[in-house]
Amino acid sequence: MFSIVEKSLYVADLDLWVDSMRARERGYVSHGHSDHAREHRVVVATPNTAAICRVRFSKRSQKPVQTSFLDRRPPRPPCVFEERAMNVPWDEGEHRLTLFSAGHVLGSSQLLVEGERGRFVYTGDFKLAPSLTCEPPEVKRCDVVLMECTFGRAQYVFPPKDELHADMIAFARRALEDGGVPVFYAYSLGKAQEAIAILGGAGLPITVHPSVAAISDVYVRQGVALPPYACYDEADYVPETVLIWPPSGRGLPRALRNRHRRTAMLTGWAMDRSASYRYGADRSFALSDHADYPALLRYLELAQPRKVLLNHGFEDFVHRVRAAGFDAEYLEEHAQLALF
After folding, report:
1. What angle do CA 217, 223, 229 make, to 5 degrees?
2. Is the dihedral of CA 267, 271, 272, 278 positive or negative?
3. Residues 240, 206: contact at Cβ < 8 Å?
């Protein structure tokens, strides 16, 4: 039996939370993005995800937290990481669990649970397109799949990678040739490293926000060969470089305030005509860590589940999945389904 509680999946037979939105006693973390990774007492994750989480999780003070004169709470104990290598199964009671690549960001994984009632896969965030900076994605046959469907509408068909990369490189070069600063807004984990690989791989000089540098350093330590990049420092910043900046840090550094700049947002939502206007950028490029519409359907063709459960996306995608011949439903909060 599993249930959806507080937008989180709980597998009762395993006493395991899956990408829980709250810190739990023991939780599986599919990848290091903040909307999936919480500081559980025990974190089940791949070694690469564990390395990213160790950097991303806030440093805990060893001093008691004081919220009032009468309320003194002890510091939260540190996480214990239960690292599980991809495609190395382990047993818990009557079930066998396996993590395998989701191709979303470095270390991202899917969860396969096998028991006498069949094979269940939780995809988490995934993509099928090849990446320059993370493990190749996998698809495993299963009886039931719980699949995210972020871009589950027909207009979300991403351009070919070669075309996308060429457009990004041309945008950056034109800005530099015009004496401006090309600024690419990208999440610190995943898209920022992909942008470094694309733009730096074309020989362009790269400067990144400190939060991007911190995660990129993890990538390098874990064996990803990134082109050279410099961490932004106001004292020695050289404007004649490509700047990669997180969307949450939209306040650009003072060194750029009086300089000509060209801005670009990296997001799958760039397929929307209003994307550049919505993000306040000169351009938007459809560089995404998620599967586009055709890839969502392709995943199901490869996995061949008898039951499809959908979440984190457009609810009307369920009708397209049913039209393709699958028994499908969109999961609502508090749903309870007996799968094991």
Report:
1. 40
2. positive
3. no
Gyration radius of the chain's alpha carbons: 21
Q: What is the dihedral of CA 311, 315, 316, 322, to 10 degrees?
A: 40
What are the tens digits of pLDDT across the range 233-289? 888 887 789 999 999 865 777 777 778 899 999 999 999 989 988 888 999 999 999
> What's the rounded Cα separation, in Å, for the pair 133 and 141?
26
Token pair in block for residue 127: 């993509």
| 312 Cα distance to chain centroid | 13
**What are the C-alpha distances in Å from 80 to residues 47, 72, 77, 184, 235?**
12, 24, 9, 35, 39
pLDDT at 63: 38
Structural domains of the chain ordered from first start: 2-57+77-155+290-337 (3.60.15.10), 161-285 (3.40.50)
CA nearest to 43, candidates 79, 89, 84, 5: 79
Q: Quick one: pLDDT band at residue 83, thresholds 50, 70, 90?
A: very high
Mutual angle of helices 47-56 and 210-221, in 10-degree steps: 150
Angle at 22 between CA 84 and CA 61, to 5 degrees: 85
